[in-house]
Amino acid sequence: MERIMLRIEYEGTEFEGYQVQKEKRTVQLVIEKALKKMHKHIVQVYSSGRTDSGVHALDQVLHFDTTLELDETTWQHALTTLLPRDIRVKSAHKVDPNFHARKNATTKTYRYIVLNRKTHDLFRRNLEWHVPQHLLIDKMKEAASQIVGTHDFTAFAASKTNVKGDKTRTIFEINLVQDDDYIYFDITGDGFLTHMVRIIVGTLIDIGLGKKEVSCIKKAFETLDRRVLGITAPGHGLYLKQVNYD
Asked: Which listed residue (52, 59, 86, 181) is catalytic?
């Protein structure tokens, strides 16, 4: 028995998220179907974390156990052949039997892409969030700096979050870069709650539009009230960019 780690990427447009759901096309379902074809039985796959409907991944990490004796290159090519065009295996590695894609992850980085001009890009409409209004970038950066650190992020979680108990997380960095018509948000933390990145980005955009004040960040940490923050940014602008391990 060997444990295999996969690094994969996918375009989330046609997926109803990562996790298996009844009668819905998900990333996990597609991968487990491919593995079932190879093994002739069900093989359960474990991920570094879930992504929502429409969310993309540049570097999702998975692991599974197998009795097949294949080298790493063969694993990559065999799975790629069996998978649809909107998902790709970047690499496959044999790892320690105790490795766990989620439990051993130390940090994750998410990227959010905003197109900030009057007209949208027809061919990238499922890959970025179009915000046509002028944004106050300096205020957004000021607010972002207040999110960095260790806080109780209850106010930044969706009401449907499956996390029970402590919602303290550490955000190590929010890198907000404006490049011509594009704004990139790279957010690195030790863990994220349901919709947490999308709520952060939506709130920063509302601050940039003048709909919210910078002070709403501090108030959210004090009151733990979701209502003091801005909107939840749509899923299609979000990417799981990188998962890191010791």
From this structure: 52
